[in-house]
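ASSEMBLY PREDICTION REQUEST
Request ID: AP-0331
Submitted by: J.K., bench scientist
Number of chains: three
Total residues: 396
Priority: normal
Notes: Please return the full assembly, not individual chains.
Input sequences:
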Amino acid sequence: MQFQVETKKKMEILDITEQLKRILPEQGEGALLVHIPHTTAAVTINEGADPDVGEDLVRHLERLAQGKYLHREGNGPAHLQASLIGPSVLVPFKGGKLELGTWQRIFFCEFDGPRTRRVQFRLLAGLENDEQ
Amino acid sequence: MQFQVETKKKMEILDITEQLKRILPEQGEGALLVHIPHTTAAVTINEGADPDVGEDLVRHLERLAQGKYLHREGNGPAHLQASLIGPSVLVPFKGGKLELGTWQRIFFCEFDGPRTRRVQFRLLAGLENDEQ
Amino acid sequence: MQFQVETKKKMEILDITEQLKRILPEQGEGALLVHIPHTTAAVTINEGADPDVGEDLVRHLERLAQGKYLHREGNGPAHLQASLIGPSVLVPFKGGKLELGTWQRIFFCEFDGPRTRRVQFRLLAGLENDEQ
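STATUS: Completed
Returned structure:
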């Protein structure tokens, strides 16, 4: 399943944690796979309390990707950034709750916006005989 | 389970999507874990239509890893690149198809070739009571 | 479930492979999700035979994160490093053994220590009708 996000800038970090919390089953345990089906966007987990953390992430990814690119569409840096951050996160859940740390939030990362983007997700099963 | 790939250059991006498609079950849903059991190689998802995207990835990872290394085997940059890109991808599937975006392909990343390399995979189960 | 690690430096790479091996079930197959519930730490897989590889990783992540940060807590570089390396690894297992490559070890990555940190884990189920 999936939902959409609308990005408004060339590079932008959007907190999608609340949308993802709603799709968890009330019982059982496993892991939530969040997959971004784009090649110039990504998803990461980081601090959400201070928006400067996301802004720092954007600025430093911009810095790290500076240089020349062969790819003629002009979004070469966004493709590099997508592979550096990665197209998915996998978060454990139990009893209807994501097992994130106190400061962790899940962020959609736009590297070539503004665009309408999709966020795919899939619930994966915990091992039945997991007695931990 | 696993299959092999033969790399021909020091650094190389190889599209392994077709080999991975063949191992999916015809029915059911879950996620395909692709794990690279090497410490100087990795796996990523990016655009496959324009081969320049992979070439850009190689060149910029080479740039980002420049500098001095303590590791005496001469492949210090490859170890850094392996951790920056990561040893695995996890892709949702359903009804025999990988749920990749239109432009997404799965790439084996060689950082210290040429070598014979292994690609491991494991099918993970979707949650049975997943009604989304 | 989880266990704790105590880090002793600002930046440090700690091998946690042995603790993780102990939590595997003797039978069955699936994947072990290792999740770090912190925003200035991460987890990666790399070579463990030569400790210089971990030291190189620390030094080059320090280099890559140099520059100015808006985040006022002084640990801006650690937040960037956390997103570059990522908060989780997913390792296939079978018959009580992690399916790591010969040289692969799992490392907790401290980027803003010294601190007491948590390592969360969850066993995920392999697909039952997986005949590969």
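REVIEWER COMMENTS: Residues 2-125 of chain C form a domain with the Jelly Rolls fold (CATH 2.60.120.460).
SIGN-OFF: pending second reviewer
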